[in-house]
Amino acid sequence: REPRHSKAKAKAKAREREREKSKERKKDKEGGFKEEEEGFLCSWVTMQTGEHPQHSQQLVLHNSGSMSFSSNFSREDEEMSRSALSTFRAKEEEIEKKKMEVREKVQAHLGRVEEETKRLATIREELEALGDPTRKEVASVRKKIDAVNKELKPLGHSCQKKEKEYKDALEAYNEKNREKVQLITRLMELVSESERLRMKKLEELSKNIDSLQ
After folding, report:
1. What is the number of other CB atoms lying within 10 angstroms of the CB of residue 154?
2. Which spans are transmembrane here (predicted)?
3. Which span out of 17-31, 63-77, 150-164 was modeled with the highest average pLDDT?
4. What is the pLDDT at residue 213?
5. What region, left, alpha or beta, does residue 50 occupy, with left being phi > 0 and alpha being psi -120 to 50 degrees?
6. Please, is 42 exposed, middle or buried when counting C-beta atoms within 10 Å of its C-beta (0-12, 13-18, 19+)?
7. Structure pTM?
8. Mind listing the pLDDT tens digit for each residue in 197-212?
9. Cα 211 versus chain centre, distance
10. How many CA atoms lie within 13 A of 171 on its CB side?
């Protein structure tokens, strides 16, 4: 009888230890869920109110009693917390998606800027290397112009000299022509005077002849 009693007592102790372990596991599980919910609520309150995370955490811890953050969560509270957590995660995913879109746009813009920079550099190189297709012909024409200028210089001096000679000759011609005109005028005056005197003399002679009769 005593060995049976010892076995029953040992089994009872084993069951008691198993119940204690089960309670501890349940407590640890509920504590982990509580920490996750508190962390989520801190982030959610910060996002909604703009308050500092530390202040939000203090708010959650302060109201943990009134919000029933304990091992005795009701099913409705648990569902509400999970829904809020899902909403928060969806918001985070949306924000991350927007960040990726903006990053892709920036990368695309930078790519276009890089392409335009390369294109401008190519155009600049072509511009600097651009040669004059008529360079040889232009040089030849310039040489001919210089040669003609050299020939024109003595001809210009000769023209000036000839022009001076022409002016001197023209002035001498005009002077002689004026002298000729003066002489012709004097000649006409003398002829007229001679005619007048001879006519007068003839008239006197004619009168003398008439008086003799």
Report:
1. 9
2. none
3. 150-164
4. 60
5. left
6. buried
7. 0.31
8. 988 888 888 888 878 7
9. 127
10. 6
